[in-house]
What does this fold into?
Amino acid sequence: MSEMRIATQFSVFLVNKPGVLAQVTRSLAEQRVNIVAMTLVDSQEHGVLRFVAEDDQKARKIVTQLNLPATETEVLCIELSNRPGALADVAGLLGANHININYAYCTSGAPGGRTTAVLKVADLNKAQKVLKDSKGKHREAAARTVRRMGSHR
It folds into this structure.
């Protein structure tokens, strides 16, 4: 794990109809706002687009101009190697330290490259400290904990 930061996540509530996602992403693209990571989930009434952008201020302005219902949340963004188990290592370490992950999503990243994990955790500061203090040893610590405690979130 190399880079970790607290970031602003935008949750934008979209009407479930063709073209709405295109409108939001096109508006971001036209203003040259890069999306770091995103996820879209749906219900019958609406979809919820969650995303982290490279430029929070520009993203906020665009979302406001589109006049769509939206909220902002602080999340933990962690750069991980793109390999099997990278996210499991982080989740295991956080679980072992009693930090709940409410939800998570990741970029796909290039094979052998880096990926970004976005985690909504119960305690941002504690999560940052635990991961920073692990100094990259989170994989071994998580594996020992999982063996000792059984699997967990």
